[in-house]
Design brief:
about 30% helix, about 180 residues, two-stranded antiparallel sheet, 5 helices, Rossmann fold, 5-stranded parallel sheet, 2 domains, alpha/beta, 9 strands
């Protein structure tokens, strides 16, 4: 059973992907099995060179699976975004942590990491999600603040801060990780 689900949220270009990549690497290096769900508001293209996989994906097929010795990708057409429980069903049961980049506020409440450019960003994100994060990271960490509203501000690149992020997530992340 997946033990931790952590939302990585913040404004555009605040460092969400950098944070997600770094947390994934820190947890994987520490021996945890990690999954990432990326929530997007647009269509995307995984094969920008317009190879055969793009041509096949553009057909009217409802499901398209692309596979190689290195990875398998499943595309399913839909009129709406899949709900969180459905997405979790695609992830192996032995996964320890799922990082959910750009986690939607309409989905069930899970522990969050706020990735912010500044304090205005923090307040806007807090208003959208209605609860405090485990910690704050992103560009705001370059502003020489250790905490904001009693919440730790940690760099998303420094080894010491990344280790502290792992510890905070493991200690506090499981407090409210049910899907209710």
């Amino acid at each position: 059973m997946i033990k931790l689900r952590i939302g990585i949220v913040g404004s555009r270009n605040s460092g969400k992907t950098t944070t997600t990549v770094n947390l994934s690497d820190v947890f994987s290096t520490a021996g945890y099995k990690v999954a990432i769900i990326k929530f997007m508001h647009h269509k995307f293209d995984l094969d920008p060179n317009h190879k055969d996989s793009v041509v096949l994906r553009q057909t009217k097929a409802d499901t398209f699976i692309s596979t190689s010795p290195y990875e398998t990708v499943l595309f399913q057409r839909s009129n709406q975004q899949a709900d969180f429980r459905t997405l979790l069903n695609y992830i192996s049961d032995d996964t320890n942590v799922v990082f959910c980049e750009s986690y939607p506020s309409k989905f069930p409440q899970i522990p969050l990491v706020f990735v912010c450019k500044n304090t205005t960003d923090y307040y806007e994100t807090k208003e959208r999600f209605k609860h405090k994060p485990l910690f704050i990271t992103g560009i705001i960490a370059n502003q020489n603040m250790n905490t904001f509203e009693k919440i730790p501000i940690l760099s998303n690149t420094g080894a010491k801060d990344l280790q502290l992020q792992l510890e905070i997530i493991l200690k506090q992340g499981s407090k409210y990780n049910s899907l209710g």
